[in-house]
Write a structure and sequence with these properties.
- By secondary structure, the chain is mostly helical.
- Helix content is 67%, strand content 4%.
- The protein has helices at residues 15-29, 52-64, 69-95, 98-110, 112-117, 125-141, 147-161, 167-180, 185-209, 216-228, 233-239, 249-256; strands at residues 35-40, 43-46.
- The chain has a two-stranded antiparallel ribbon.
- A hairpin with a 2-residue loop joins strand 1 (35-40) and strand 2.
- It is globular, with a radius of gyration of 19 Å.
- The model has no long low-confidence stretch (mean pLDDT 85).
């Protein structure tokens, strides 16, 4: 109810509209948009945003035989919330117990930031990224038990890279886990594989297979530059603008922790 009440079936003109334009293009042409001719008109540049949200949602839309793309994509975040709640309940129950899983799902359901990103019309990467993140954390917790969790971790992390640019923060966490596991040979090997392979898989899918400019290595480079030049006058002037969305680790933790 919190996610659909007083929210019409529309896609706002922001990041949600940005992704909807790409979904509409894919649904109507059968091809993923490779060149953006409108974002910086009159200049044309190669598409450099993570593609998995659009690919997955359009695939489900086609299978569903629904006849209204706008309404479907507007409600897609709500669908992901329901799926995430079910997946989280099952996985956390396996890790702990039924009471813990119920408490987590209940808390997740009413967390203000999560309500916002899974509400009707908020067609962005956040809702899908959180679902994948829960799967990645579960795979990490089970990593030593069976090799299949290494495979699931590699697949989920690859999809996460192709979904959400915040994978850079997740890689920072994985690097810390790697450093803390130096005495555990098995964990060290599997975490190393889980860190390295998704980078090359996502690069192959996005750059080689789809012909996009979105590359995990480029995102790392941009992150490094943003930290290196954060005190530069021109950089600070640009990012002090009030009409730009600011991002930082503090803001991320404020929005996605409860």
């Amino acid at each position: 109810y919190l996610r659909i009440a007083f929210r019409p079936n529309i896609i706002p003109i922001n990041i949600a509209g940005f992704y909807y334009y790409r979904a509409d293009y894919l649904a109507n042409t059968g091809k993923y948009l490779q060149f953006d001719t409108e974002g910086m008109y009159p200049h044309t540049y190669k598409e450099n945003y993570p593609p998995f949200l659009v690919l997955l949602s359009v695939a489900i839309y086609k299978i569903s035989m629904y006849d209204n793309l706008l309404v479907f994509m507007s409600n897609f975040p709500v669908m992901l919330f329901l799926i995430t709640s079910l997946v989280a309940f099952v996985l956390i129950k396996r890790l702990f117990n039924k009471i813990t899983s119920l408490f987590f799902v209940a808390l997740l359901s009413v967390a203000p930031s999560y309500v916002a990103v899974t509400g009707r019309g908020f067609y962005t990467e956040d809702s899908l990224g959180i679902l994948l993140l829960i799967g990645i954390i579960y795979s990490l917790c089970k990593l030593k038990e069976n090799r299949k969790y290494l495979y699931s971790g590699v697949v989920l992390l690859t999809l996460f890279i192709l979904t959400w640019q915040t994978f850079v923060i997740l890689y920072g966490v994985l690097l810390v886990i790697l450093l803390l596991s130096f005495k555990d040979t098995l964990t060290l090997k599997r975490i190393s594989v889980m860190i390295i392979i998704p980078l090359f898989l996502s690069y192959f899918i996005s750059v080689i297979l789809m012909g996009l400019a979105y590359s995990p290595f480029q995102i790392f480079k941009e992150t490094y530059i943003s930290f290196k030049d954060s005190k530069d006058f021109d950089y600070r002037t640009a990012f002090d603008r009030k009409d730009l969305i600011h991002t930082s680790l503090d803001i991320f933790l404020h929005e996605y922790t409860y």
